[in-house]
Amino acid sequence: MSDAPLGSRPRIISIANQKGGVGKTTTTINLAAGLSEFGYKVLVIDIDPQGNASTGLGVSPESRTQTSYDLLLEQAMLMDLIRESSVAGIFVCPANADLASADIDLVTSEKRSFLLSDAVQEASFLAAGFDFVLIDCPPSLSLLTVNALVAAESVLIPLQSEFFALEGLSQLMLTIRDIRKSANPRLRIEGVLVTMTDSRNRLSQQVEADARANLGDMVFSTTIPRNVRVSEAPSYALPVLQYDPTSKGAEAYRRLSLEIISRRSNGQAA
Ligand code: ADP
Ligand code: MG
Questions:
Q1: Most buried residue, 34, 39, 69, 105, by CB count within 10 Å?
Q2: Closest ligand 1 atom to the C-alpha of 234?
Q3: Which atom of ligand 1 is the closest one to the Cα of 22?
Q4: Least confident of 17-26, 199-208, 235-244, 253-262
């Protein structure tokens, strides 16, 4: 589609799980920070109307005059929406509550599932030389999440280590399968990330063990511990890697980043 030189295409990873509060946004922000520490140029596209990834990366709500709503519904160019974040090397296409009506507003659009995909393949965006694009999805399997899965090369699924965590996964896996059949045959699972683990809690250990038994090496070796520094960081508009670089949470997200850098297409199927 573009004349961009070979090798300039970013790796596009959607962070998705229709359950809220499982660590999607936290993972998006801190994976972006981990990848940028290793020298990669990262774009975070926020498509959750709550806009938490935008806020957590220092793009204040008042300053969000143009957002991913304009990208999806007003034919704005991605390059015109990209903003600097609170961290060098990380850029943000922000979101706000306007997106809440996107599902309804998009119904009449023929290309409604491909809008984000088209945006990240557009020549001026490719020319900007991003290494990674992370898409922070809303807690639903709505058209917004579908757009993210159609645009992505892979999907990273945070799984909160609590009872019933695995139950919700089958619906997401079915959606991924549908999207492979229709719009994006190459979509693969980047990995399932067990989040908010507590090594002193037997239930938490059990959830991790079950996930590994059921999903095998689809599950990242890295798990993310429950760590208060992780939950404090967004109120300082910083990733935990900047807020408290030596915290357990920061170290875990650094390990995850390394796993993702080294773990290229090993082709697990859903
Ligand atoms: P989602 O985007 O899936 O809705 P969030 O990333 O917003 O989930 O996380 C939900 C809540 O849990 C937030 O308040 C966040 O700060 C907190 N949280 C996420 N990961 C951790 C962690 N590893 N340790 C402590 N709190 C966490
Ligand atoms: Mg979120």
A1: 34
A2: 16
A3: 3
A4: 199-208
Whole-model pTM: value is: 0.95
Ligand 1: lining residues by beta carbon, under 6 Å: 20-26, 52, 139, 195-196, 224, 226-227, 230-231, 249
Domains annotated on the chain, with CATH: 11-262 (3.40.50.300)
What residue has token string 């519904």?
A: 73
DSSP, collapsed to helix, strand or coil, labels residue 84 as strand
Angstrom distance (rounded) from CA 73 to CA 27: 27
Query: Which whole-number Å values give the CA distances from 134 to 45, 75, 164, 213, in the listed order?
Result: 6, 21, 27, 28
Over the stretch 140-157, which tens digit does the pLDDT of each residue have?
999 999 999 999 999 999
Within 10 Å of residue 8's Cβ, how many Cβ atoms? 13
Q: Show Cβ contacts of residue 125 under 8 Å, excluding neighbours closer than 6 positions.
A: 77, 78, 79, 119
**In this structure, which residues have their CB less than 5 angstroms from ion ligand 2?**
24-25, 52
For residue 178 the two structure tokens come to 């549908």
Own/partner long-range contacts of 120-123 (Cβ < 8 Å, ≥24 apart): 120/10, 120/12, 120/45, 120/78, 120/151, 121/1, 121/2, 122/1, 122/2, 122/77, 122/78, 122/79, 123/1, 123/2, 123/3, 123/4
* More confident call, 267 vs 31: 31
User: How far is residue 231's CA from residue 169's CA, in Å, rounded to a whole number?
Assistant: 24
Q: Which ligand sits nearest to residue 51's alpha carbon?
A: 2
| Residue to mutate, 17, 24, 26, ligand 1, most ligand atoms under 8 Å from C-beta | 26
Strand partners, 147: none
